[in-house]
RNA sequence: GCGAGAGUGGCGGAAUUGGCAAACGCACUGGACUUAGGAUCCAGCGCCCUCGGGCUUGGGGGUUCGACUCCCCCCUCUCGCACCA
């Protein structure tokens, strides 16, 4: 009977589905475990990254379920998003049709992989029964001031009349029509994630189950820095410029001022001066430049004088105000006090435009103070203040505090904390997304859609414009409405929400995806949340995971959730690569999961993904490696079938009866393997070494085969070993395990069999192998009784003839004995 | 530039607490079975060697009886952030 993966897999997938084997209910008497893998975007077909992600998750789900946990393991679809619009335009179909067809196809693919999902909880975020609750959250956030509208710059393609995401801008041009993209100021909706910035930062220390790498990335993204805000009065006497700096100690060396091109003061300062034209031209040019170019060192530092001056609040010196292309509006106040002697960028700028340089920091107490003209670069480190009035002689750290305090006393500055994190812009001028539930009324202004009128359903009967622009603003039927407050004619918001909003709370909805009395059923959500283990790609380390943390806190404060953090443990799996590069169509190195499953079966594909590398590392796809996995399963299959009669007739050995040494060794190996596999899965998620251990056991069974068949315990010990292989393998290769389990005369399902435990008694050998070293080098091996004393061990080691030859004629200085492991003789 | 991670045979990788480096798999070599073998089973497989042994975890130094593992310096690669004031 040959192993036929296709037949076996279809049989058991049908069985699992008929028996609803993986549907779970809330059960307060059982310990719950919520295991979640990041849900996919229904792009059309699953790729190897999904296969890997979901294979890992499935092992954990099946393993924990066999260990007695009540495991929630759901799956759904991150179903809104722009690819659906693009595909629809290209294929002249509708985004909804395209999306739902993809979902149907991909669901079939996942089922073919034999993943143990509770499909009764499946959800798609583009369904009104899902996004209606998201709109409710939006309305509540609007009422709390957590959702607000403000002007901000977006990438705008004038030809397509649409806003572009950053990744749709290629070399400063629109990806669709190749026309230049400009920065346009538009009204956009934002979520006030900055209200939670401190909690988001602090709680990173309370997530020991997250990889350090991800925590660091989030910390950097939040980017908290301590410094001072300093007010520089304008020479004209009309107001002042606010500046954020971490280097208040260098204030005496500030000789000019740099403003971002977008800074609101720029216009005002140059108006009516002879520089006006030059400044405006410069600002325009800077705005044209793509953000990507503004970043990095791609752009040469340039600037223009505005014609205005401000006053250094400490020295009283007149400081010319420049507009500089390297100052970004998004960070701090969009204005920088320039200290050319102690900041490299300011130094280069000063040299270029011949601006004064004043040294105010020296390296140490006795270091000389350099002449500005002799400098070839800025001195950016901390040091001792010079030429700084009352503060001269202080260290940088002392001066930062003292100078800020002095300013504060005069109302010209204060200590401040800056964050890199900006509020989350969620407006998308796109069609295929959840409509933002807002109505604009000429009388009443911006009015949220009343909760009882939700959802604002995304109309599905619209034609997609060729340009790629959203059809929503063109739909009179959608736009025209009445004001919920005054009843007069009003217009609907036509922006939709960023798809990251949907994925920021889907994990909670899985606890109760059929609930229609509100977004979240308190009882069920209370039972399942938080997610105990979350598994997904490292590419979501910042945005998705940060937004989900933010949303969890917002929903907590609204009373929907009782947890502070959504994901207790996080596993970020590495990419699947081929020939050293990420799989991509352009490189032609894509491996299609369907082809692999057809050729080898799902069990083999899963096994390979788990075996070839530990989960957090990259996985190099290898066709020969897949062959190896397939060969191993064939080996296990034959192990059962070649011995079927004898195995069926025997009861598994329980470790009690006396058996010969060969069988004793197999019994010991069986229990060592149970221990190794259990610990590798449970503590480390190292499935590769777990599988290697099972392979070792299989190899040993093969070696024992026929060797001790006259021993009455032969078949019982064999049965124990073979059944152990099948059970230990079942989370990784569930179909073949079910089939072999049944053929061994057991009743299905193996998924409901308790995970085996090892007997400590059975792990111990009567004799152990001791390594003998001379001067740290391996010189001999000893087989000794397991209960050997250190003294006997030392004696035996010194008496060993091979060891003797190395210590002959030398003085033994010291003997180190590591109990039951090693002897090291130092001569 | 800043931050994080990694570097072990021909390849993927193992070594969990400082204690036999290279488990397991792939590739390769030989043998058995066979009409046949691209199936299967068995064996070998880091490098050098005068067959005693010597050398080996990116390079150099250190701690230790003993270092892939700990410490210092350097090199290379990957990822993240990046004119952050």
Roughly how many Å is the radius of gyration? Answer: 35 Å
Strand content: 15-25%
Low-confidence stretches: none
Helix content: 25-40%
The main pleated sheet reads as:
4 strands, parallel
The residue-averaged pLDDT reads 91
Q: Which class of secondary structure composition applies to the elements?
A: alpha+beta
Distance between the termini: 62 Å
Task: Tell me, briefly, the overall form.
Answer: globular
Strand order of the largest sheet: 2-1-24-25
Count of DSSP strands: 32
- Alpha plus pi helix count: 28
Keywords:
RNA-binding; 827 residues; alpha+beta; 4-stranded parallel sheet; 37% helix
Provide a short characterization of the protein structure.
It is built from 28 helices and 32 strands.
Care to describe what's here?
This protein has 827 residues and is of the alpha+beta class. 37% of the residues lie in helices and 19% in strands. The protein contains 28 helices and 32 strands. It has a four-stranded parallel β-sheet with strand order 2-1-24-25, with helices on one face. A four-stranded antiparallel β-sheet has the order 4-3-7-17. It has a four-stranded mixed β-sheet with strand order 11-12-10-13, sandwiched between helices.
Secondary structure elements and their pairing?
Blueprint: H1 5-19, E1 32-37, H2 48-66, E2 70-72, H3 82-91, H4 95-112, H5 128-143, E3 147-157, E4 162-164, E5 169-170, E6 173-174, E7 182-191, H6 197-202, H7 212-222, E8 225-233, E9 240-245, E10 256-259, H8 264-270, H9 276-288, H10 291-294, E11 303-311, E12 318-324, E13 335-338, H11 344-353, E14 361-362, E15 384-385, H12 396-409, E16 413-418, E17 424-425, E18 427-428, E19 438-441, E20 445-448, H13 476-479, E21 480-482, E22 489-492, E23 496-497, H14 499-502, H15 506-509, H16 522-528, E24 531-537, H17 543-557, E25 567-573, E26 576-578, E27 581-582, H18 593-600, H19 602-611, E28 619-620, H20 623-641, H21 644-649, H22 661-684, H23 687-704, H24 714-729, H25 734-743, H26 760-763, E29 767-774, E30 777-785, H27 790-799, H28 801-807, E31 814-818, E32 822-826
Parallel strand pairs: 1-2, 1-24, 10-12, 24-25, 26-28, 29-32
Antiparallel strand pairs: 3-4, 3-7, 5-6, 7-17, 8-9, 8-16, 10-13, 11-12, 14-15, 18-23, 19-20, 19-22, 21-22, 26-27, 29-30, 31-32
Helix pairs in contact: 1-25, 2-19, 3-4, 18-19, 19-20, 20-23, 22-23, 22-24, 23-24, 24-25
This protein binds one RNA strand of 85 nucleotides through helix 7, strand 9, strand 13, helix 11 and strand 28.
